[in-house]
Amino acid sequence: MLKTVKKAGIFIVAAAVMILFLFLSRDNSATGDKNLNQVTPSQTDDPPDDTEDAFVEDVSIYVDIKGEVNNPGVFEATPEERVHDMIQRAGGFTNEADQTQVNLAQKVHDEMSITVPTTGDVIENVSNNEIGSEKVHLNSASKEEIETLSGIGPSKAEAIIAYREENGLFQSLEDLLNVSGIGEKTIEQLQDSIQVP
Fold first, then answer.
1. Three-class SS of residue 98?
2. What is the secondary structure of 130-197 as a DSSP string?
3. Dist. CA 67–CA 61, nearest whole Å
4. Distance in angstroms (rounded) separating the CA atoms of residues 63 and 78
5. How many CB atoms lie within 10 A of CB 130?
6. pTM for this model (two decimals)
7. Are 108 and 77 in contact (CB under 8 A)?
8. Nearest-angstrom CA–CA distance, 63 and 74
9. Which residues contact 150 (CB under 8 A, 6 or more apart)?
């Protein structure tokens, strides 16, 4: 009888130890899961890395290329690109293109239209912002191009470019009044020779 009681006691103790072990294992596992759940949000809640976006500026412009190019259409560009870049983007000149009538070095600007004529054709009746226009586009013209304007010498051309770089693109003819050395009479002389948006 005593042996039976001892065996039963050992069995009960062993069962209790097993139950306790299973309970503790389950509790630790749940705690571990909780800890994992606590770590994950702190990692995912970190602010997104905006380093890349900080260097991306919305400076895209759109240029219309038509005429003697292999793939005419509207192309996205940046203000630093030139007509040459746009021609390449449009698949290059066709065999019939008259390249002598296109200023490949000219910087492009938004809503610009580039028409590449066929050899023997002369560009006529083009809009003010098309290649072939005699008007000078103040927001993209070089110092030399600005100097071709009546009454504008090297110093005034430099002042125009300096104003453009410091204050942004010209929005109207009246903005020229903010440029040193340019008054209303000068603007009256230039209004048929220059273009601003």
1. coil
2. BTT-SSEETTT--HHHHHTSTT--HHHHHHHHHHHHHH-S--SGGGGGGSTT--HHHHHHHTTTEE--
3. 20
4. 10
5. 16
6. 0.40
7. yes
8. 5
9. 189, 190, 193
pLDDT tens for each residue of 105-131 = 888 888 888 889 888 775 543 433 444
For 49, 53, 59, 158, the CA distances from 43, given in Å and listed in that order, are 13, 21, 34, 53
Q: Which regions in the chain score pLDDT beneath 50? A: 30-45, 47-48, 50-57, 124-133
Q: 123 and 115 in contact (C-beta within 8 Å)? A: yes
For tokens 């294992």, the residue is 25
Question: Are 59 and 78 in contact, with CB atoms under 8 Å apart?
Answer: yes
Residues counted in the chain: 197
